[in-house]
Amino acid sequence: MFQGETAITIDDKGRLAIPTSYRELVVRECGNRLVITYNPYEHGCLWLYPQAQWEKVRDQVNALPSAKRVHRNLQLKLVGAATAVEPDGNGRILLPASHRHAAALEKKAVLLGMGTKFELWSEQAHLAQIRQTIGEDEISDDMLDLRL
User: Fold this and answer.
1) Which residue windows are coiled coil (predicted)?
2) What's the total number of domains in the chain?
3) Domain of 82: which CATH number?
4) By mean pLDDT, which of 6-10, 74-78, 94-98, 141-145 is the weakest?
């Protein structure tokens, strides 16, 4: 559903404009509702889910037994921090200050369409990720079958 990389600006009020190429899709496919939460795996990044996709993820995460610390940590970062947003008439969403601060998001950011969700990266964290290469020792068995 979503793919591509867009450099974006976060204004002084903490708002970002959904790129025009995605606005109609967000209205049509997402009911004009997105859910913002932390990326529990990488610093400098927030995840933005369409409401319906988020509900599936939320239910899977909440079904994990909370007796395990790693499950509680995942529940805290994903479900506990989830915030629903709706783009305004100008296609802007307000990023909660706590989320911006935790992900070190400042004025310049990068929005990535990652299929079923968006990833919102701080410019610095995105550059660091892009500059990393995948080493031969990191290639998984699943990756060996890819024809890139």
Assistant:
1) none
2) 1
3) 3.40.1550.20
4) 141-145
